[in-house]
Amino acid sequence: MFERFTSDARDVVRGAAEHSERVGSRSVDAEHLLLALLDREASRGSFALASLGLADRKESVRAALADARRRAGLSQAEADALAGLGIDVSDIVSRIEEVHGVGAMSGDRKDKGWWSGRRTFSRDAKEVLERCLRIALAHRERRIGDEHILLALTARPGVPAEVLADQGVTYEALSRVLYGGGEARAG
Fold it and tell me: Is the separation of the CB atoms in 151 and 175 below 8 Å?
């Protein structure tokens, strides 16, 4: 499938692996793909994000992703649902971090156990990459660009879609910018 990726899309995948390595994660997650997209410049995906006003709010997206990682990857919607059951996720995170240190629930196991060093893609990241192929095909595009990865992140439930939606970046808004019906069109 990667042979169908444009150089921008390949750079996003490489960037996601680098983000994963930086935080000591053993797998590349959907959040890492979003972080790599935020790093991009002069691509269709970066143009679409800028068109939707995200260029000046990238740090708030990064902070929201870091908060979700501290909650063991729970989205705010999931934390709110648990709160409705009387479970305070923030309190649980605080208690665990008191005993085990900040970021203990992130799932990263730095220096614990044997590991080959090769980062795999999590189920969520694989689903994003599979969905970006379907999105490109649905638009009759033979190559998969970083804009397709961005669309795929917004097309499925989870932390990346929730964080982007909080910033006004939804699948529908991106589609309008990328494929028409909006004021600007990524080219």
Answer: yes
Nearest to 16 by CA among 31, 36, 1: 36
Helix, strand, coil percentages for the chain (3-state, nearest 5): 60, 5, 35
Among 57, 83, 13, residue whose Cα is nearest residue 168: 57
> In total, how many domains does the chain have?
1
Please indicate, yes or no, if residue 94 is contained in any of the structural domains: yes
What is the per-residue pLDDT across 69-124, written as a single tens digit (0 to 9) for each? 887 777 778 888 888 988 887 788 777 777 877 666 665 544 444 345 567 999 99
Residue ranges of E strands in 43-149: 120-121
Q: Is residue 185 part of a domain?
A: no
DSSP 8-state symbol, 122:
P
pLDDT(153) > 90: yes
Summarised one tens digit per residue, pLDDT across range 136-145 is 999 999 999 9
Average pLDDT value for residue range 37-54: 95
* Domain residue limits at 91: 2-109+119-179
CATH number at residue 51: 1.10.1780.10
Contact 178/132 with Cβ under 8 angstroms?
no
Residue 164 lies in a domain: yes
Long-range contacts of 84-89 (CB under 8 A, 24+ apart): none
Angle between helices 58-70 and 30-39 (to 10 degrees): 160
